[in-house]
Amino acid sequence: MPDIIDGRIAAAIYEKVRREKPLVHHLTNFVTMGDCAAVTVSAGALPVMAQAEEEVEEMVSAARAAVINTGTLSPSRVRAMGRMGVTAREKGIPVVFDPVGAGATRYRTGEILALLRKIRPSIIKGNKAEIGFLGGLHGIKIRGIEALNIDVDPLEAAQRLLDFLDYEAVVVITGPVDVVYDFRRIARVFNGNALLPLVVGSGCMAASVIAAFAAVEEDFFTAAATALATLGVAAELAAESKDNLLLGPAAFKIRWLDTLFFLTAEQLVKSARIKVDEVTQG
Amino acid sequence: MPDIIDGRIAAAIYEKVRREKPLVHHLTNFVTMGDCAAVTVSAGALPVMAQAEEEVEEMVSAARAAVINTGTLSPSRVRAMGRMGVTAREKGIPVVFDPVGAGATRYRTGEILALLRKIRPSIIKGNKAEIGFLGGLHGIKIRGIEALNIDVDPLEAAQRLLDFLDYEAVVVITGPVDVVYDFRRIARVFNGNALLPLVVGSGCMAASVIAAFAAVEEDFFTAAATALATLGVAAELAAESKDNLLLGPAAFKIRWLDTLFFLTAEQLVKSARIKVDEVTQG
Amino acid sequence: MPDIIDGRIAAAIYEKVRREKPLVHHLTNFVTMGDCAAVTVSAGALPVMAQAEEEVEEMVSAARAAVINTGTLSPSRVRAMGRMGVTAREKGIPVVFDPVGAGATRYRTGEILALLRKIRPSIIKGNKAEIGFLGGLHGIKIRGIEALNIDVDPLEAAQRLLDFLDYEAVVVITGPVDVVYDFRRIARVFNGNALLPLVVGSGCMAASVIAAFAAVEEDFFTAAATALATLGVAAELAAESKDNLLLGPAAFKIRWLDTLFFLTAEQLVKSARIKVDEVTQG
Question: The complex's ipTM?
Fold first, then answer.
């Protein structure tokens, strides 16, 4: 029997985040940095965004989880990411690694692969093109930071990446159905809303909340699946606009953040839809 | 007879943007980077914000249009802008160049002029003080990045800049009435709303949408005029708040983005107000 | 008798900001840069965010107030802050210095102390942990950029910092009750709302508005107290949602900005709550 991960477990972890307010150190891109800070606060945790090589090791040592996001990469940021990530690993602080733009340029891809090998992050989260590309799947085309509409099986992409990396990690592939994989189990999270992928930074923000959950839940597989379900339930409820507010991506982002902020255990228990299956290695 | 550019043409180009989802590579300032990404998505295109010298050439080569914005300039960004802009020109990818802060400091002005000469961007978009200053008009005072209330004729400012640059480009001057000029024609766009200039980044965001339109419409003069009309119609409709929402610059920005997202061809056909005239060279 | 600073004085200064539209030059962190620009516009002033060493001296010379914020610090930013701050002091332009993250890492703390000694800013604004830490109070623990719930008397923290710095400055400590101190007087500002500290960047944004007020009011003690009351009254009115809008930190931020934008002298006169006392040196 596979583990059961449901809304009650999500609610218990979310409650723990809100009670313990873990510090989540981000080294993330300039585009959505403010959004990542906002979602971390809305989820009840504390964000910090220090990025200088000179201080990331000390800052991450004071944190309970870390996010490394490769958007708007640069050589100095790569160096800071390496120092921050290695320190986090040495101290047992979970790192959520978001390989934004993997496959988009040779520079980005090369630095991402080097960082993955160096940091060995606990959780790697991307879309299926990024994860598939990093795992060596053929025929993947990436345009900017967007996955083209490619026919990649998320489980295969996650498996290929873990085989390639050859250490124990949790791989998260976001999409209409989010997938979480850890060699042994696959969780599928069915919550969400069609506006979510149109919110710039929604993927980056998911990494922040996964990190906040991983800060208080040592089974990172469970932490990732419940974080995604929590964000997805908030998105579903945010879209149920009772007033007349015009709800495009911009207003939806605001409401998503605030729905997450007010989300109750009851709502999570009622609406979280997570399915866990055991995976037989091929 | 001058060309007629109207709401039907705007709607046709906008439809093409939404269908083809062109990638628009931005190298823009840190202040409004997130807003530029958001408006690009709301307009149906795909943003990417890679900024490292190491990858901008490859990234822009995969894009169909580019935005270069000189806010929060720095030497490394200037170098990246040069490489990105030259690559774009060599590959025939339109560049919208936004000389934010031209005239504000000697450093900024010098780098902007050097970049203009090096890149020879397809479209140059600024306010009348920036464009007038770059074209050598006397008596222009710039305070920070804001045009002081100067008595500059937009057409003269545009003409002076094109005479100075001496290559074929489209010049856009934003203001209560937006002006687009290409040596041969002047378009005046009468759409907009008084809250728009109070939205931080509305000018930067206009560059993003002009670039998205220029990605699918090879007559950049038409692309710029219709993009501005589209944004202006969205602003007019956004201001017609049917609910009780307090609509200052912050809420208006959200609603403007979402109105743009939902904007229909019918609304554009009904409300776009663009006037094109031939220009006799003086 | 201590000075009386009330809503009428706040309204008079705010009116002056709106009329004179002072340019406020920011060198602030990447996380909330856009929010600082937005609040500056909503308060009726003009923001500029130039950050390159090559231009900050010239840019700040054109400004009437400056904000230096040490979030997302880096060596190049420290250098630019030093040049900007020294130039401002030499030209008599007030600097609001926000020592974000003081105490969080040795690097951050060291650079902040060096900048304070070098710049000698007119106004230093932080939370009580940051100010207490910089003043040498014992037993202060800082986690990321958040003050832990420490038992520090704000007045003592402010006094210790001024004693340490040994020059005339105004110290602002934000909190449920904001405190302003200048060796001679202490002002307590009772306006505000519980959602405000959950708005990422609300502290940074307060610095922007204090700077805008200090640009037009040469008694910086009065400028700081009235700016905080103005922001606090806007927060109180923003929270009085008459519609059904879900008001978590994200929507509240938008409404706070817009309430500030529309704030009237009558509202300030009616609701500002500032108490000034003379301080006997211990």
Answer: 0.95
